[in-house]
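Subject: Predicted fold for Fe2OG dioxygenase domain-containing protein, 455 residues

User T.R. writes:
Posting the sequence so we have a shared reference for the thread.
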Amino acid sequence: MVSEVVPIPSRVESLAKSGIQVIPKEYVRPQEELNGIGNIFEDEKKDEGPQVPTINLKEIDSEDKEIREKCHQELKKAAVEWGVMHLVNHGISDELIDRVKVAGGTFFDLPVEEKEKYANDQASGNVQGYGSKLANSACGQLEWEDYFFHCVFPEDKRDLAIWPKTPADYIPVTSEYAKQIRNLATKIFAVLSIGLGLEEGRLEKEVGGMEDLLLQMKINYYPKCPQPELALGVEAHTDVSALTFILHNMVPGLQLFYEGKWVTAKCVPNSIIMHIGDTIEILSNGKYKSILHRGVVNKEKVRISWAIFCEPPKEKIMLQPLPETVTEAEPSQFPPRTFAQHMAHKLFKKDDNDAAAEQKVFKKDDQDSAAVHKASEKDDHDIIVEHIVLKEDKQDSAVEQKAFKKVDQDVVAERKVLKEDEQDAVAELKVFKKDDQDVVTEHKVLKDVPAKESK
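User M.O. replies:
I've generated the structure tokens; pasting them so everyone works from the same file.
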């Protein structure tokens, strides 16, 4: 007798509600990704060990210079040491935030069949709408989440046709929240600019300004999981964005890789979690950190988070360390590339043939390339290697910096070459299609986003 093959539901919510006690193998993560996963509720209660900093923004605009600068210094310190923080007294009312949560929660309370009316089509490149993570090219595993993704600002770049019509409050409240997050982002950019010794409007200008900086919202829905010790809601990644702002329903699940260990973020009432993304890390030449993080799940409570990713335009801006952040003592850590090329570097698998193109474009010699390759293989945990090699160890960073040592006149000349014609741009894009085994976790389904930039 041939047993009937039961198809796996396309939505994680449907799978979770089917009564299964064992999750399908497609959702079981590799063992090396499961380190540090315990009881998330117990982990969140622990007081010992490092804690994600909480930054009080009440005095961010104070007329008292000393009080204002104290606030600025605390925010800068968190950006330098952690790259993530809880923001309190951020100026967005609790009433508005509650409405945002109710609207998103009400949408996900709808039957799956109703939500399917808003389904996206990832195969055709349409990532806006209701969806679930497709198997990625790196490890072929799935994440334990469904989501709703859409552009929320500027208004002229939104597509309201794909926004949920139920509940009725969804469009007005999400629109207002996006405006207020955009204003908050301006304040944060100003503080981070000043922290680099720049004019306060510099970073905002560098990421597109009011006209071109995109705000993309992703509502993450993490159903209860019968085997949370084997799954991940969002795999380990850094956000490709400039900044990411996150709300959640006070169910723990965010973990940060800090000083070699996974740290569970506490649930801080009336706070917004803010991440520094790769874009700001690049512009600051690594002074501000884009921290590796992931989302874990549990078997007791549904977790929902609302992430807004602030992204620069894909092609208009060349991401590279600002000249003021580069010195002889601190050479450029990052090669110039557009935001689109940065996403391609992180999201797509690379091969050795394209590594040769990278060597040609950036004029690296064989010894430097071998040193970078050797550095990238020194750690067993591939999901941690990129984080460590590129960000944590100055000696390892120096190796990569040496590979990109044409910082001043040579780098300027190279940038001109890269901008001259489409062939050179294509050559640069190929740069980042080399060996990507160490970026196994940096492949979010949001190909217009970020990631995970995943939260």
